[in-house]
């Protein structure tokens, strides 16, 4: 159905680049996404959300909303079946921050001082995130096994049991509650017991893919990295004490990934409602990236690679902030759910590796060619 501008747009206040990408279309009202109510949508044509807004009949019934855009990869917060039944167009942003999550995986391993060379990886869920991780591992000559019940023709395809036997296990499955391959609590107590002592488990898909209670109750002999938690933002503070590295669901929070999400939703809206691309948005998208500080290290080998990666992004800072928030909540400060959301809202600007230039051998004589080649595979220019 043809649509005329100006439009009324209601958007999660945490979506960056709203003005550049949607400013030409009409009025933008920003609101906290976690508690959006139907009354805020009484005049809205377009609803723009991130993953914290449950978009369903309870929110949208009897509102004029005709397009819902989620500037995220995940779609488990959208009742897509109901939206389609109602003829409300919708889109998410597949792959928008996949590279950010892959970089998070390598930086988490660097933070834990786990040299990934010579280790075998297992990946659960081989879409944009898992597939990109698999390609990087192949390029780095690292073996991996994949469990993805919808992609059994993958050359690295394996059973979940085999994947859980690897040295580094990365969970990148979406949250699926029904159908032939649900992922809800796919990593239950029995699955956790299969993980080998000394292995590393990294969870950066959705929290409830792991049974958090089962994980908390176990005396695990493997290293655990959790970016996502069951019942966010009301995460289990006791579980945080048990994990080696924790963060408030920010694996995908590179500046690039967030802006890509906003851009992709504008493109999807253009398609759905037959709208032109905003000129200002085209200008914004071609803006060059700011000058980055020169990377430096006097180390060699993996120690050098580790130091360089952590100087671009160090997940231990996310861990420290989350633990401080949990500690403060336990001693009468701001509640952990509020603090969890605040940490995400005030997240520092994090740029992907591609913004950084590989140091030349003249600049860093201790850096051998093999490490330079690996850094290039990881995305440095
Ligand atoms: N921590 C964070 O900040 C972020 C988390 N995510 C989460 O990661 C998930 C994956 O992202 P993408 O790879 O981009 O999604 P995608 O949709 O491209 O790929 C998901 C893959 O998982 C597979 N899958 C579905 N059910 C499965 C099951 N039961 N077991 C194993 N694999 C299963 C699918 O076949 C598909 O290949 C998203 O759905 C989202 O929930 C995404 C971005 C950032
Ligand atoms: O894209 C996804 O899917 C994610 O998990 C996002 O990175 C989560 O970010 P918010 O939508 O919760 O801001």
Low-confidence stretches: none
What is the assigned CATH homologous superfamily of the largest domain?
NAD(P)-binding Rossmann-like Domain
- Corresponding CATH architecture of the largest domain: 3-Layer(aba) Sandwich
SSE run: EHEEHEHEHEHEHEHEHEHEHHHHHH
Strand content: 5-15%
Bound small molecules, by name, code or SMILES, are: 1,4-dihydronicotinamide adenine dinucleotide, ligand LXYGBJRG
**Helix count?**
15
> What class do helices, strands and sheet pairing give?
alpha/beta
Helix content: 25-40%
| N- to C-terminal distance | 45 Å
Shape: globular
- The overall number of domains is 3
Structural account:
There is one protein chain. The chain is α/β, with parallel strands linked by helices. It folds into three domains: 7-92 and 255-284, Rossmann fold (3-Layer(aba) Sandwich); 98-246, NAD(P)-binding Rossmann-like Domain (Rossmann fold, 3-Layer(aba) Sandwich); 301-378, no CATH class. It has 15 helices and eleven strands. The protein has helices at 18-22, 57-60, 80-86, 98-111, 128-139, 160-163, 189-194, 212-217, 237-242, 255-273, 279-285, 301-312, 315-330, 336-345, 369-378; strands spanning 7-12, 26-31, 46-49, 67-70, 89-91, 121-124, 144-147, 168-171, 200-203, 223-226, 245-246. The strands form two sheets. Strands 7-6-8-9-10-11 form a six-stranded parallel β-sheet. A five-stranded parallel β-sheet has the order 2-1-3-4-5, sandwiched between helices. Strand 9, helix 8 and strand 10 (223-226) form a beta-alpha-beta unit. The longest helix is centred in the last third of the chain and has 19 residues, at 255-273. The radius of gyration is 21 Å and the shape is globular. The relative contact order is 0.12. It binds 1,4-dihydronicotinamide adenine dinucleotide and the ligand O=C(O)C(=O)[C@H](O)COP(=O)(O)O. Residues 14, 50-52, 72-74, 97, 249, 252 line the site of the ligand O=C(O)C(=O)[C@H](O)COP(=O)(O)O. Residues 40-267 form the D-isomer specific 2-hydroxyacid dehydrogenase catalytic domain. Its main location: cytoplasm.
